[in-house]
Each structure stands twice: as structure tokens, then as C-alpha cells.
């Protein structure tokens, strides 16, 4: 059972999200919060697998709450759920340790898919957000790509392969099946990759994989091990 914390200052939004998640028998909302500070306290009390946080909340906004959860409860995956899709919010959410970013205007199926992906250790961006990130990375700065390629060159061929699959949005279990290894081996690779690339989480590693050209159009292009 995937345990979820739901934080939004609007009761009607919380009720709607809870109703969508209730359609999946494998997901349970174990706590709700109406502001960011309450969300952090609830997460520490209930230790959910996933925290769904609205960005604009009183006392402590969702971005600040995500950063606190990343520090105090790193086992809890954070998904930002908002009506706002501006680049500033996307960048701050991902750099703050969020593992997912969903728009409230998106397909309800994205919500369930996102919760399942983040609970499984993967990153998840709504299609609109993913398109924005990929377009920004792919449209632009050659210097950024060069620096990213230089950083990933320090990885072993197998680590680059794992990074490419991680960048394509696969969970540890899916990567293990793809590479015909046990999941514990993948976890060790991911931990080593995050350390060697000096990134906080899987989302930042996935962005770096896009910048380095290891992932194109959402499909992995790993080098042979």
C-alpha cells in the first residue's frame, strides 16, 4: 500500500484529489494538511511514501516544505501539485528536492501515475512540464550540454547506462529488469551516480542526463556496458 500525505489550503481541492487517489486500491491517503508547516509536521508523524504538496500555501509554501521534507524525511518522495506551470516554479521545485511536478489541470490519471512512479523511486513530470524541460535543454545552450557531458564522462559505462534509464523515468525495479540485475545493484549504482555527479536526487540526475544527451525524446539511449 502506498501511503500519501495530501497538503493543500483549499478543502475542495483536497477532497477532489483524495477522490481521484481512492480509485486506486493500492493508494491510501494517511494524512491531510492545510498549510506547509502542518504538512511537514504530518509527514514526520506519519512517514508517508509520497507527499503531494500545493505550491502556494500559508505559513510555509510548498517549495519550502519540500526542501524541509527532503532534509528531515528523505524517504518521503515529494510531488508538487499546482495550477501554476511557470518555469520559475518548476526550477525551484526540482532544485529543492521534489521528485515530481504535476499540474492540477492535467489528466487525473497523471496523478495516480505520478504517485506510483515516485513511490517506486522514479521521478515524474506531467507531460506539459516534461516538454518544457526538454525543450529548454534541447533548444539551448551548447555550453550547458558540454559541461554535462564532461561530468557524465567521469561515470563508468554501466553507470551512464543506468543514468540514461533513470533519465527516461524508469524506477529502480524497471531498470533492474531492463539490465537483468537485482534491484539492490541498481540502488547501489544510483547512489554512486548521485554522489559522483554531486546532485541531490533523481530528478536533478535526470535533467543532467538530458543535458548530456543521454536521453532523447523520452527514450533512453544508453551506451553499451
TrEMBL record:
Keyword Phosphoprotein: yes
Domain Response regulatory: 3-119
Keywords for the protein's UniProt record, in alphabetical order: DNA-binding, Phosphoprotein, Transcription, Transcription regulation
SUPFAM superfamilies given in the database record: C-terminal effector domain of the bipartite response regulators (SSF46894), CheY-like (SSF52172)
Listed Pfam families: GerE, Response_reg
SMART domains: HTH_LUXR, REC
Domain called HTH luxR-type: residue spans: 148-213
GO BP annotations listed: phosphorelay signal transduction system; regulation of DNA-templated transcription
Origin: domain of life: Bacteria
Positions of post-translational 4-aspartylphosphate modification: 54
GO MF term list: DNA binding
PANTHER family, alphabetized: TRANSCRIPTIONAL REGULATORY PROTEIN NARL-RELATED, TWO-COMPONENT RESPONSE REGULATOR
Protein name listed in UniProt: Response regulator
The species this protein was found in: Actinomadura litoris
